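Predicting holo structure, F0G bound.
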Amino acid sequence: MDGTVGRGLLARYGSWLPLTAATPALSLGEGGTPLVHVRRLGAQMGLRNLHVKVEGMNPTGSFKDRGMVVAVAKAIEAGAQSVICASTGNTSASAAAYGAASGLEVVVVLPKGAIAVGKLLQALMAGARVVAVDGNFDEALAVVREMAADDDHPTTLVNSVNPHRIAGQKTAAFEICDDLGRAPDFLAIPVGNAGNICAYWAGFTEYAMAGVVEQRPRMIGFQAAGAAPIVLGHRVDHPETIASAIRIGNPASWSLATAARDESGGTIDAVTDDEIIAAYQDLARSEGIFCEPSSAASIAGVRRMAAAGEIEPDALVVAVLTGNGLKDPNTAERSAGDRIIESRATMDAVRAALGW
Ligand code: F0G
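Done. Tokens:
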């Protein structure tokens, strides 16, 4: 028996996904991630019902696996031999893994020098063909869209402009509702290329239409201040932020994201790098949850709105932590500071070093 039969998203949420009898039963065990009630961090913000959806627990350490399992399975179903994507790192790590598990050629086009080291190594380890271009993510995406549209060398685009990605990612909203027994009041989420906020909104909407839940949440999305085109209302040609996963100046799903915001009565706002890093550290130190900097944008945004009285103390809030902190050891090292105490290897010396 295949090790992941009965597990993963295609098995759990198949009836909500665009599957056919010919769709292969692909899984690396994605989905089913923890929803954690973060009481200590919530108390610091005056929120009693703050939860985090720990998407870093997916097989390649980010939410991308939810969309990638569907996109790659559908690509195989359609007879593809090759998949391609542009990425700030996580999409490429996920495409590389699911492509490897399926025996496909995987090509990833990345902004040179702008990818967290763990993500780059994930793609390389899984055997993807990695092309580093002298441009940013938006330029890399334009290149792969052009390549996928050209019939000379057929390849399937697996960025979130592929609707199967969004279909898979909406399952995170289903899981949240299944765990809570209702939809939250607020769903906080980092926004980069803006696919995921649309996927969550689609998931909540489908569950509400089917009568599984009565209400839908207000969608509150957060961009990094140096890469906040939706907030500013115009493209950002040179996006800059420490949160490299969301360093995007021209999101592909821009108009769908603003529609989700408006239909839900929510907001898309910007948080500064300082606010992101503070949230990143606080999550680790108060809750033991190590996410990547971009993920912490959701917590930074919730903190700001709670302080402004825009989220009531009893509101049921879910913040999505999109990726695992281990992916970006360089930012962690800079944020952790020099906190190692050196000592001789005796009990007395260690006690003395600790000031015990
Ligand atoms: N958080 C993380 C950790 C991400 O990797 C991304 C996107 C986002 C949030 C934003 O999600 O793009 O759907 O709005 N990463 C893409 C990538 C762009 O290439 O890995 P989004």
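The mean pLDDT is 96.
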